[in-house]
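**User:** Hello, beginner here. Are you able to go through the protein record under this note? It all follows right here:
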Amino acid sequence: MKRLLSIELQKIWKNRASKVLTLTYFILITFLSLIASIKFDIGPIHIRLADQGIFNFPFIWHFNSFIAAWFKIFLAVVIVSMMANEYSYGTLKQNLIDGMSKKEFILSKFLVVVLFSAISTLFLFVISLILGLVFSSFNEPSIIFSQMEYLLAYFIKLLGFFSFCLFLGVLIKRSAFALGFLFMWFVFEMISYAVAYNNIENTKLVDTIYDFFPLMSMWNLIPEAFTRLNAIRTIGSQIGVENIKDYSVQTADLAIVITWTFIFIFSSYKIIQKRDL
């Protein structure tokens, strides 16, 4: 496995665009600290995010995981390009000629997906821990290390999303078309959900069905965090809206995304296995 991973990392690091996108992704995560300086007004109410406890333990695990997940598109481009370049430069065929099996080839790609997801999660943990130790009002170990299931959800979310990107790269071959299809699939899920939700009386059934869609299931892993902020809750209580939303990470959502990850990787292997290269 070490040999397979080493081969893939050399390919990525020698590609200038992949190197820039990867570094950009991690740099953006480090910029989470800049969120503390954001200020905005809601009517007569003046809100500074730093004063709303966004870096308090254990809320910081939820908030940073939710925000950092938006940056995954940078690594998604790297994953898609990594696969598309195998076709463009003929390295896939050369690897097979040199003795690498098709199973090892897909395994090497999946190892990169796992490594990117793991390093991203570890990096987010370190950044969040530092910000929390600096800004949080709570420093008890029992509080600091509670609700860390959001980091697990973040890891599984990246694993599923990158596996989807890898599958599209294998299926479509061209990075631009694969990314275009990814965007179109996102639009399809959003629009079809909105149409179904507004035209079918049993909205609970609609939610249940769409919870099994790939991108929607990944979105469900980490519930949005903004309505947990003190200011938003205060505004809600002032206008008579009680927040009863469940912000916890659901085991069922984790299982669905893990299942999709298996489907994407297995399908990628089957395509490579059957395709005339």
